[in-house]
User: Which sequence fits this backbone?
C-alpha cells in the first residue's frame, strides 16, 4: 500500500475517530447541559431556609451609608464599635471615661446619651428605654468579635424605625453559626494591665439550621491618671491611682432552625470612674457604674404567598444600671431598671410591577421603668419613680421604580407613645442612576424622639438635678443631596450636602433654681458638606478617606463639642516581606468649644500590624493606638466641673493572639 | 467538621440527584446561592477559555464557605478554583467574581474592571444589575432568582446561553433600562 494512501487512510480513520469522539463529547455535553439546566431550574424553585432568607442590607437603602466589615476590624484593630464608627464620615466621638458619645453631623451635646441614634443588632432595637442610650464603647452589649458587618445609615429615618432615629441608624450584623463553622479563640493583652479572652464557636445543622455561642471576658486595671483640676495643696496631688479599671462579661447564643431564628445576648460591664463627677470624692474607692442587660430575640419568617413575605419578631429586653458615688457623708446610689417586650411584624409585597411595598406594625410594652436615687447610710431615698408605658407604630413604604434609572422611595410612619403626642414621620427619596457608575440622590425626612424616662423623671432630691414631666418630643426635618461617582475601577468618590432643623430640642440646662433640668429649646439649624474617596493603590493596598465641614446655629451661640471640620483616613494593605498586613487609621478633629472655653483640634492615629497566614496556626497582631502619643481633650458636661475638658488616653498598645479551627 | 461536611454533601446530593438518601428540605440561603453561582458558570461562554476557571469571592462567612465547598467541581472540563478576594484586591486573574451584598461601591468597581475583559461579575441584591453586575442574584418570592445584564455581558465579550436567558427573571438589554 502506498505510504501516502495509507497515511490518508489513517488520517481518515483518525478523523472518523475524532468525529466520533467529538460527537460523543458533544452528546455528553448536550446531556450535561440538559442536566445542568434541569439542576439550575430545580435550584431556582428551592425555597430558602426561612430564617436566613434574603435580607436587603441597610447599606443598599437610599442613603449614603458607611460600612465596615470584619476584615476592616481585623486590619485596624477596632476595640469597640465607637472606634469603628468614628472612621465614618460626619461622625466624631468623645468620652468621659465612663461612656462613649457619638456626634453626628456636628451634634454631640454634653448630657446626651446617644439618644438620637437607633442602634440595631441583627435588626432589633438595642437602645435601652430609660436613657434611650445607643451604647458604643465597652458598655455596648456586643463585642467586635461577634460582628460581621457594621453599617451606619445617616439621616432622619423615623419613617422606618420610629423614635430616636434623628441622625441615623447603626446596625451591627452579627455572625451566624454557619458563618463561623468552627471555633475562634482570641487572647489579648494591653496597656493598663488589660486582659481579654474571647471564644466564638458555631456550626451548621441539618435542614439549613445553625448555632452559635460566644463568650468574652475583659478586665483592665487601668492606669494612674493625673487631673490638674483636682490638685489642691495639702489635700490631693491630683492623681487618681488605680481608679480607671473596667470589667466586662458578654455572652451570645444564637441559632436558626427552619423558619425560626433566635438569639440571647447578655452583657455586664463595670467601669470605675476616675473623675470626681457630681461632686463625689476624688481618688476614693467605690466610684463606679455598672450596666447590665439582656436581649432575647425570636424571629419567624414566612412566605404566605409568592409575592408576600412576612416577618414576626418577639423581643424581650432587660436593662439595669447602678451608679455608685462616694461622698464624705454617705455613699450614694442611682439605680435604673427597665423590662420591656415588643412584637414587630413586617410584610413585604412585590406583587405589583415596579413596586416593592413594605408595611410594618410595632408594639412595645415597657413593663418596668424604674429609677431610684438614695443615700446609702443613713438611708435617704430621694427618688423612687416607677412607671409603665407603651409605644405603638405603624409604617408603610414603597420603593417605586418610576422609569429606567429612576427610583423613588416613599414612606410614612405613625407613632403613638404613652405620655407623648401621636407623631407622623414621612420620608422621601429620589435616586437617579443614569449609569452604573453615577448616582444622584435626594433625601428628605422627618424624625422625632419622645422625652425619655430619665429626662422626664430623674431627680436627686434637690441636690443636682430635677425631672421635667412637661417635656415635649423633639423633632427634626432634614434634607440631603448626595452624589456617588465611580470614575475608574480603582476610584470611588462621594459628595453630600445636608441641612437639618431641630425644634423643641431637649437639652440639659441649669434652671432658675440652680438645678439641672432637661428643657425644650428654640430651633437649632445645621448644615454641612461631606466628601469621601476610596482609592485602590495596587498590590492590595486601599486608601479610604473622608472630610466633613459642618455648621450649627445654637440659641446659646457657638455650640459645644462641635468641630467645624473632620477628616478621617484609613490605609491598609499587605507587607509581603513581613507576611503581615498594616493598617493605619488617622483622625483629624477641628477645635471645639467647651462649656467654659475651647479645646484645640488634633490629629491622632492608630497603627496595626497583623500576621497573615493560616488561622489554624495562630495569628499575632500588635496594635498601637494614638501612636504619636498626642495629648488632646474632649469637652465634657457640667457634672465634671471643675473639669471643663477631659484628656484622652495617650499611646496605648494591644497584643493579640487568635486561632481558628 | 466531619458531620458538617456530611450534612453539606447530603444536601448537595439531595439537590443534584433530587432525592435519594436524604430528603431535600429547605437549604440555607448561602448554600443555595453557591449552588446557583456554580450552575451559572456552566451557561456562560468566555471568548477564549480562561487559563484557569477561577471564581473569586468577595464575601465573608457563610457565603464564602459555601462557595469554597464548590471548589473542584468541573466547569467546562476544568476544576473550579475558588479564591477569596478582599475589597482591596483587583480581580486580575479571575474568570468570575461573586460579590456579597452590602459593600458600597464594590459592584460598580468590579463592573468597571470587567469592561473590555472577560470577567463575569455576579452580585447579590436588587440593585446589583443597575450598579454594573452582569448577573444579579435576587429574592424571588422566597426563592433565589437572577437577573441578567446583557449589555454588560456583551461589553466584556461574554455570552450567556439561551437556557440561562430563559430562566432569568429580568433581562436588561440596554445600559439605561
Assistant:
Amino acid at each position: 500500500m502506498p505510504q501516502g494512501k495509507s497515511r490518508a487512510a489513517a488520517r481518515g480513520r483518525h478523523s472518523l475517530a475524532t468525529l466520533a469522539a467529538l460527537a460523543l463529547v458533544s452528546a455528553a455535553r448536550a446531556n450535561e447541559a440538559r442536566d445542568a439546566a434541569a439542576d439550575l431550574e430545580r435550584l431556582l424553585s428551592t425555597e430558602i431556609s426561612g430564617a436566613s432568607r434574603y435580607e436587603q442590607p441597610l447599606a443598599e437603602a437610599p442613603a449614603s451609608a458607611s460600612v465596615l466589615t470584619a476584615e476592616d476590624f481585623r486590619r485596624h484593630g477596632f476595640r469597640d464599635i465607637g472606634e469603628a464608627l468614628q472612621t465614618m464620615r460626619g461622625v466624631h466621638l468623645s468620652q468621659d471615661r465612663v461612656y462613649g458619645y457619638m456626634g453626628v453631623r456636628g451634634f454631640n451635646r454634653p448630657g446626651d446619651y446617644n439618644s438620637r441614634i437607633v442602634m440595631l443588632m441583627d435588626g432589633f432595637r438595642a437602645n435601652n428605654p430609660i436613657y434611650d442610650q445607643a451604647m458604643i464603647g465597652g458598655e455596648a452589649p456586643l463585642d467586635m468579635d461577634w460582628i460581621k458587618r457594621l453599617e451606619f445609615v445617616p439621616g432622619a429615618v423615623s419613617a422606618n424605625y420610629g423614635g430616636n432615629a434623628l441622625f441615623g441608624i447603626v446596625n451591627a450584623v452579627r455572625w451566624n453559626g454557619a458563618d463561623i463553622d468552627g471555633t475562634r479563640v482570641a487572647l489579648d493583652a494591653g496597656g493598663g494591665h488589660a486582659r481579654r479572652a474571647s471564644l466564638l464557636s458555631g456550626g451548621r445543622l441539618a435542614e439549613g439550621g445553625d448555632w452559635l455561642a460566644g463568650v468574652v471576658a475583659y478586665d483592665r486595671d487601668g492606669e494612674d491618671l493625673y487631673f490638674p483640676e483636682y490638685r489642691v495643696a495639702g489635700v490631693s496631688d491630683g492623681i487618681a491611682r488605680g481608679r480607671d479599671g473596667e470589667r466586662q462579661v458578654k455572652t451570645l447564643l444564637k441559632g436558626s432552625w427552619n423558619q425560626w431564628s433566635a438569639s440571647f445576648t447578655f452583657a455586664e460591664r463595670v467601669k470605675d470612674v476616675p473623675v470626681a463627677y457630681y461632686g463625689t470624692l476624688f481618688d476614693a474607692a467605690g466610684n463606679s457604674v455598672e450596666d447590665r442587660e439582656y436581649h432575647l430575640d425570636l424571629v419567624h419568617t414566612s412566605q404566605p404567598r409568592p409575592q408576600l413575605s412576612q416577618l414576626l419578631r418577639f423581643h424581650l429586653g432587660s436593662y439595669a444600671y447602678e451608679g455608685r458615688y462616694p461622698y464624705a457623708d454617705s455613699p450614694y446610689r442611682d439605680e435604673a431598671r427597665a423590662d420591656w417586650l415588643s412584637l414587630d411584624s413586617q410584610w413585604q409585597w412585590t406583587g405589583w410591577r415596579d413596586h416593592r411595598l413594605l408595611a410594618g406594625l410595632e408594639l412595645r410594652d415597657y413593663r418596668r421603668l424604674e429609677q431610684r436615687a438614695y443615700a446609702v447610710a443613713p438611708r435617704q431615698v430621694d427618688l423612687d419613680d416607677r412607671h409603665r408605658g407603651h409605644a405603638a407604630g405603624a409604617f408603610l413604604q414603597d420603593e417605586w421604580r418610576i422609569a429606567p434609572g429612576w427610583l423613588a422611595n416613599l414612606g410614612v410612619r405613625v407613632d403613638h407613645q404613652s405620655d407623648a403626642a401621636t407623631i407622623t414621620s414621612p420620608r422621601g427619596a429620589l435616586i437617579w442612576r443614569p449609569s452604573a457608575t453615577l448616582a444622584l440622590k435626594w433625601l428628605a425626612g422627618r424624625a422625632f424622639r419622645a422625652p425619655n424616662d430619665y429626662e422626664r423623671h430623674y431627680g436627686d432630691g434637690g441636690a443636682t438635678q430635677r425631672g421635667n414631666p412637661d417635656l415635649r418630643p423633639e423633632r427634626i426635618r432634614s434634607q440631603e443631596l448626595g452624589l456617588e461617582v465611580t470614575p475608574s475601577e480603582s476610584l470611588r468618590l462621594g459628595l453630600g450636602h445636608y441641612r437639618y432643623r431641630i425644634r423643641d430640642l431637649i437639652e440639659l440646662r441649669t434652671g432658675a433654681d440652680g438645678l439641672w433640668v432637661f428643657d425644650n429649646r428654640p430651633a437649632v439649624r445645621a448644615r454641612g458638606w461631606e466628601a469621601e474617596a476610596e482609592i485602590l493603590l495596587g498590590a492590595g493596598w486601599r486608601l479610604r478617606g473622608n472630610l466633613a465641614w459642618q455648621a450649627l446655629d445654637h440659641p446659646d451661640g457657638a455650640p459645644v463639642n462641635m468641630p467645624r471640620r473632620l477628616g478621617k483616613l484609613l490605609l491598609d494593605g499587605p507587607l509581603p516581606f513581613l507576611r503581615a498586613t498594616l493598617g493605619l487609621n488617622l483622625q483629624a478633629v477641628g477645635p471645639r468649644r467647651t462649656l467654659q472655653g475651647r479645646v484645640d483640634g488634633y490629629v491622632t492615629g492608630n497603627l496595626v500590624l497583623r500576621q497573615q497566614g493560616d488561622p489554624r496556626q495562630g495569628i499575632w497582631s500588635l496594635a498601637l493606638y494614638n501612636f504619636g502619643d498626642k495629648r488632646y481633650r474632649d469637652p465634657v458636661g457640667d457634672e465634671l466641673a471643675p473639669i471643663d475638658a477631659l484628656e484622652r488616653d495617650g499611646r496605648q498598645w494591644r497584643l493579640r493572639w487568635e486561632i481558628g479551627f | 467538621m466531619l458531620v458538617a461536611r456530611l450534612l453539606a454533601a447530603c444536601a448537595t446530593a439531595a439537590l443534584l440527584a433530587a432525592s435519594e438518601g436524604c430528603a431535600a428540605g429547605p437549604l440555607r440561603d448561602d448554600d443555595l446561592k453557591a449552588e446557583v453561582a456554580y450552575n451559572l458558570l456552566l451557561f456562560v461562554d468566555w471568548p477564549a477559555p480562561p487559563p484557569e476557571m477561577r471564581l473569586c469571592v468577595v464575601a465573608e462567612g457563610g457565603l464564602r464557605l459555601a462557595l469554597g465547598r464548590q471548589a473542584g467541581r468541573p466547569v467546562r472540563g476544568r476544576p473550579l478554583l475558588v479564591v477569596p478576594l478582599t475589597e482591596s484586591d483587583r480581580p486580575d486573574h479571575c474568570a468570575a467574581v461573586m460579590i456579597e451584598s452590602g459593600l458600597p461601591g464594590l459592584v460598580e468597581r468590579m463592573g468597571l474592571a470587567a469592561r473590555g475583559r472577560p470577567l463575569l461579575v455576579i452580585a447579590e441584591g436588587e440593585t446589583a444589575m443597575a450598579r454594573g453586575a452582569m448577573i444579579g442574584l435576587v429574592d424571588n418570592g422566597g426563592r433565589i432568582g437572577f437577573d441578567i445584564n446583557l449589555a454588560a455581558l456583551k461589553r466584556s465579550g461574554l455570552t450567556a446561553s439561551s437556557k440561562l436567558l430563559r430562566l432569568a427573571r429580568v433581562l436588561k438589554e440596554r445600559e439605561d433600562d
Summary: The longest helix of chain A spans residues 3-44. The radius of gyration of chain A is 28 Å. Chain A has one domain: 50-660.
